Amino acid sequence: MATKLKLKFDLVAIIRSITTDRRKLEVYLPLVSDNDFKREYGKRLIDDIEARLDEGKDKDGEKFTGKAGKYSKSYRESEEFKFWDKDKTVNLQLTGQMRSAMDVISTAGRIVTIAFIDQEANDKAHGHVNGANYLPVRDFWGVPNKSQKDIMMEMIKEFSERETILVDLPEAVAEADFGFEVDLTDGE
Amino acid sequence: MASRIKVLGLKEFEREYLKTLTTTFNRAYYLALAKQARQLIYARVKTGSGVSSDEDSAPVKTKLAPLSPNYIKIRSRLQDAGRLGKFARLGTSPRKSNLTNTGQMLESIEIDDLPSGFRLTIPESSREDGNTNAEVALRVSNAGRPFFALTDQEQLKLFRQIEKDVRQAFRRLNKKR
After folding, report:
1. Which stretches of chain B are DSSP H helices?
2. Per-residue confidence at A161, pLDDT binned at 50, 70, 90?
3. Which pTM does this prediction carry?
4. Inter-chain contact B167–A188, Cβ cutoff 8 Å?
5. If you placed Cys at B149, which of B36, B59, B132, B170 could pair as Cys (CB 3.0 to 4.6 Å)?
């Protein structure tokens, strides 16, 4: 049984690396107490890892190269390869079960943690990340800083819009194009 | 100062979200998912795995029991006669325990359209040997090689696929807004 692979992301640190502007931080940082926000952020990090894998890239966005850049001839000619209808891209996906097992396992405090929820999947991933059974290292387990920031900004935009509507309803309604109407008549 | 605020148009908002859901999760989507489920079972069995037979817990992937020496001999003869895996898209070998003799049973898995999803069935279709595919499936399952179920990991894979598609659909909608 391999060591549990975990990726931890400190959301406050990521936000502070995006901006030092106090006014912006006052808007951005409260989002870190929203569990939906944190969970969705984690999910998008997983999407990001998967998108890189689909292109045969490692955790830094670099193509797997050398021995790691292609599957061995014997593997390509194996029954498994045929039965699972696999293409030649090194995307660490045969049955897809390892990749499906990536999930957000914790959103405690300011930290979002991603891990594998299945031990077998964790062990497979551990083998890829560290190299095992004479297989080359294919370290896909990580998210580049730039992606962490881009995803954070994308989400801040989406969640802040929502926040504006809830906190400052009349102004938000005036700008919204999906038809809120506000009745501002006095008294009962 | 207003004493009353009415928020209208939520129905329209709801309609837009429902429309997104129904256009994403249509019959074509169910069919694609069903095909994926069928492929998961097909590939698992072809690579030599069935499912656990404990009905009290979610099925897990288990190795299919090995073939007996006698049966391997019979399969070798079938192979010499060009009949081993005759109907299979993807083959087998005499020693491989993967429920592929002629290949008819695994190739026969059908998809039924249900109002709320889909169903996979091994039909009562007839075979060269006079049995039906459903009979053969039942026989091999009862004889210690259960296979026709989605394992916990396979269910997770399908669930993840649906989850991802839901999230993408709503993200598209949010961008439209």
Report:
1. 10-24, 27-46, 69-80, 104-107, 133-142, 152-176
2. low
3. 0.81
4. no
5. B59
